[in-house]
């Protein structure tokens, strides 16, 4: 009944990245005739290059270049055979040198992505389990999708959350032989580290616990012989740790390396490791360059290269610290992340630095949460101290200007990233003397006529409807049915209302708009853990309502400022309430707020379509049928009119106590089935309050053939004071629903009742668009905008959805 279109993760990513591409900060092309590593030319402008991942600059080393040239001249551009048959002559030398570096024979793969695809399905047995850090590289997460085909549990934890990790270990210990935790050694965006010392302690505490590290960003600039961050911390490789490194990025060549101390396992991976068996091997030029780089790593030169880079990192850290900039994870990593919070600030800042002659990387969703948008700055041996000093000066100068131009602030950035500040300063949201914002906590504090004129024209949003909502939810004893209300009115100096809306704060299920398959998985868990995957949400509107939850004047000269003021105010409320997500919902797809909202750190998702029926007056069934399409007319006569005679239809203004109990049970039947929009069930008190409100009435259907007097279907309908009829909830006995087309009959009886009342507008709500369209409803696509503190929940739900598809 409640089929809806679900948001596609790829669509959301495309939407965000397309906006960045449009403003000229992504999908750029270098125009140089040759590279030095120090500079790069884009759109005719030469810039200092602070965006490389070749941290030691070896990709420009003359020895690597000459080795690659010699390899091509000797062996050609490629050796087109699988390594399972034969490796070209240079492989032996490379493997020997890599083994000298690590003291362990390597497995060499085409790249780290193919390496993960080769290793993970071979390494993980059917009786094992996997736990992913939710920021582990995409290539690791993607390889783990193959495990789900085999029924292997793949869990996810919040980034570096050791308590959550230990809980997952305990949960998996009774059903898994080995439990593998997969993480990056050095994370590519923030430059922070895996807590290796603590992870090693967990591996000592739990014998089943094993570790799998992707350390491609920790290579070369760290560790003895440049063996990387992970090896620098573990020193020697035990059997319960597997490490993936790289021959590209800082190593300066191409390819990847895999290390495990179990010889039998190593042979198994090499014998049948997917891409290792069926994909082409590294080109001779790549192997030749890697041999030259390995020679450097085995010499004392690697120490001086590391020391030189470490000096530059320390120098840059000092410069940034003096400027008091929001740099995340200040450590000895060559990766720096300057927090911007909102995409529009990041776009502004990148464009400013481009003009000054500095190339930096944009860090944006899905690599980071969209409200954690920022700038990734990477140092390399190519950068000179004077370049670094000039960059630090440019950052210090342009950072506050970018904030000012985009209505941002350092305090907002600290809040977005959870950066603790010594002096707590509240944001003064209303800085514009032309506007002021009123906040109220009850509809009773707002003029009823004004509210009804501006906000109360649809759904339950008239004054009486808001009174009903507050009476039900504001002091409800059940926290899943409890909401705080916040009303915002923004006026100009002449006291004219430019914008009006309301928000509610409460607990939602995280899978509210996930697919039914995901919700069914989660509901099984909630039988023993009712609050599993739930969050505190500050949302425009209320879960009980739908439609346009705001009034605005887009033509007003201060309309854009009013919107920005509202976003500032609700973001401050979001932070003060410590909510998990902030949601602006039920907008039309082409709404004029779209660009402004997304620029402030929200991403857009599809909502279920809304259904509105403009009920033109009709006197006979034939007259109503004539308003439908020919196909819908046949459907109406065959599947609705033909069954109407089976029903007693009553419209009741009040129900008895027993009828309320019956009505509530029928509602729960539907709510339990309707997992496409998965919310907490409303308690019986909500329905008792309906019974005491004059604006509610109940369309009750019972079967004439049925011996028992109890009804089998009910529509809970609200009469809006401004000529709107709202069939808000429905209840059904599924024992009779299919045989007698009960749902369709309830829809039609609602239309019939609205026609009797002379009400032209029926707010048919969300979902079941196919059935409602057949009765003449118009379908309106809707979107929502979400701001989240991290991507964990969204990525977890996407993982669960992919798991179901794989099954």
TrEMBL record:
Domain spans labelled BioF2-like acetyltransferase: 632-773
SUPFAM superfamilies in the record: Acyl-CoA N-acyltransferases (Nat) (SSF55729), PLP-dependent transferases (SSF53383)
Record EC number: 2.3.1.-
Superkingdom, taxonomy of origin: Bacteria
Cofactor: pyridoxal 5'-phosphate
An example molecular function term from Gene Ontology annotations: transaminase activity
Gene3D superfamilies linked to this entry: 3.40.630.30, Aspartate Aminotransferase, domain 1, Type I PLP-dependent aspartate aminotransferase-like (Major domain)
InterPro entries assigned: Acyl_CoA_acyltransferase (IPR016181), Aminotransferase_I/II_large (IPR004839), AON_synthase_class-II (IPR050087), BioF2-like_GNAT_dom (IPR038740), PyrdxlP-dep_Trfase (IPR015424), PyrdxlP-dep_Trfase_major (IPR015421), PyrdxlP-dep_Trfase_small (IPR015422)
UniProt-listed Pfam families: Acetyltransf_6 (PF13480), Aminotran_1_2 (PF00155)
Domain Aminotransferase class I/classII large intervals: 46-395
The entry's keywords: Acyltransferase, Aminotransferase, Transferase
Protein name, per record: Bifunctional aminotransferase class I/II-fold pyridoxal phosphate-dependent enzyme/GNAT family N-acetyltransferase
């Amino acid at each position: 009944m409640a089929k809806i279109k679900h948001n596609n993760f790829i669509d959301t990513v495309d939407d965000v990245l397309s906006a960045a591409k449009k403003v000229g900060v992504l999908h750029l092309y270098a125009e140089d005739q040759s590279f030095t590593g120090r500079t790069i030319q884009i759109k005719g402008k030469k810039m200092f290059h602070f965006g490389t991942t070749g941290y030691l600059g070896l990709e420009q080393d003359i020895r690597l270049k000459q080795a690659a040239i010699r390899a091509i001249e000797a062996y050609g551009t490629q050796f087109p055979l699988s390594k399972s048959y034969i490796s070209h002559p240079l492989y032996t030398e490379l493997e020997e040198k890599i083994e000298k570096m690590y003291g362990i024979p390597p497995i060499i793969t085409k790249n780290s992505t193919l390496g993960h695809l080769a290793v993970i399905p071979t390494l993980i047995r059917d009786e094992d389990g996997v736990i992913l850090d939710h920021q582990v590289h995409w290539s690791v997460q993607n390889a783990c999708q193959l495990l789900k085909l085999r029924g292997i549990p793949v869990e996810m934890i919040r980034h570096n959350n050791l308590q959550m990790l230990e809980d997952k270990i305990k949960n998996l210990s009774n059903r898994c032989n080995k439990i593998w935790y997969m993480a990056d050694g050095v994370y590519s965006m923030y430059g922070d580290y895996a807590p290796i010392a603590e992870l090693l302690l967990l591996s000592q505490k739990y014998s089943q616990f094993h570790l799998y590290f992707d350390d491609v960003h920790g290579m070369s600039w760290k560790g003895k012989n440049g063996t990387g961050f992970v090896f620098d911390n573990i020193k020697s490789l035990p059997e319960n740790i597997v490490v993936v490194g790289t021959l590209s990025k800082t190593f300066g060549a191409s390819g990847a390396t895999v290390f495990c101390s179990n010889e039998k396992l190593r042979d198994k991976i090499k014998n049948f490791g997917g891409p290792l068996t069926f994909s082409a091997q590294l080109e001779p030029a790549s192997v030749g360059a890697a041999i030259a780089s390995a020679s450097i790593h085995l010499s004392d030169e690697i120490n001086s290269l590391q020391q030189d880079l470490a000096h530059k990192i320390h120098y840059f850290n000092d410069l940034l610290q003096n400027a008091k900039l929001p740099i995340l994870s200040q450590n000895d990593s060559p990766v720096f992340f300057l927090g911007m919070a909102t995409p529009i600030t990041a776009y502004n800042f990148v464009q400013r630095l481009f003009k000054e002659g500095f190339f930096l990387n944009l860090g944006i969703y899905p690599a980071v949460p969209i409200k954690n948008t920022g700038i990734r700055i990477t140092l390399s041996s190519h950068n000179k101290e004077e370049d670094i000093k000039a960059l630090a000066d440019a950052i210090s100068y342009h950072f506050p200007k970018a904030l000012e131009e985009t209505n941002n602030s350092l305090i907002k950035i600290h809040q977005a990233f959870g950066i603790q500040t010594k002096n707590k300063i509240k944001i003064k949201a209303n800085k514009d003397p032309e506007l002021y914002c009123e906040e109220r906590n009850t509809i009773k504090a707002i003029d009823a006529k004004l509210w009804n004129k501006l906000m109360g024209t649809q759904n339950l949003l008239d004054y009486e409807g808001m009174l009903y909502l507050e009476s039900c939810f504001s002091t409800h004893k059940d926290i899943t049915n409890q909401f705080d209300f916040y009303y915002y009115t923004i006026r100009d100096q002449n006291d004219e209302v430019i914008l009006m809306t309301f928000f509610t704060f409460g607990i939602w299920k995280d899978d509210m708009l996930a697919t039914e398959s995901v919700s069914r998985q989660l509901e099984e868990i909630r039988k023993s853990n009712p609050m599993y995957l739930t969050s505190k949400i500050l949302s425009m509107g209320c879960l009980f309502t739908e439609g346009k939850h705001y009034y605005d004047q887009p033509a007003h000269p201060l309309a854009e400022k009013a919107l920005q003021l509202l976003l500032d105010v609700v973001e401050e409320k979001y932070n003060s309430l410590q909510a998990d997500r902030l949601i602006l919902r039920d907008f039309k797809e082409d709404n004029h707020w779209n660009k402004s909202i997304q620029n402030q750190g929200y991403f857009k998702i599809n909502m279920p379509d809304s259904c509105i029926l403009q009920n033109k007056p009709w006197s006979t069934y034939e007259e109503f049928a004539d308003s439908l399409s020919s196909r819908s007319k046949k459907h109406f006569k065959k599947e609705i009119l033909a069954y109407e005679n089976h029903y007693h239809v009553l419209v009741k203004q009040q129900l008895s106590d027993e009828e309320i109990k019956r009505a509530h049970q029928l509602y729960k039947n539907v709510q339990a089935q309707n997992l496409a929009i998965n919310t907490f069930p409303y308690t019986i008190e909500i329905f008792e309050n309906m019974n005491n409100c004059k604006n509610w009435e109940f369309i009750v259907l019972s079967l004439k053939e049925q011996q028992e007097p109890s009804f089998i279907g009910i529509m809970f309908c609200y009469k809006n004071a401004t000529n709107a009829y709202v069939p808000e909830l429905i209840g059904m006995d599924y024992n009779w629903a299919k045989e007698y087309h009960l749902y369709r009959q309830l829809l039609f009886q609602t239309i019939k009742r609205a026609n009797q009342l002379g009400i032209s507008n029926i707010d048919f709500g969300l979902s079941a668009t196919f059935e409602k369209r057949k009765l003449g409803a118009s379908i309106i696509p809707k979107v929502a905008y979400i701001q989240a503190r991290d991507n964990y929940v969204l990525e977890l739900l996407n993982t669960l959805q992919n798991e179901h598809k794989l099954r």
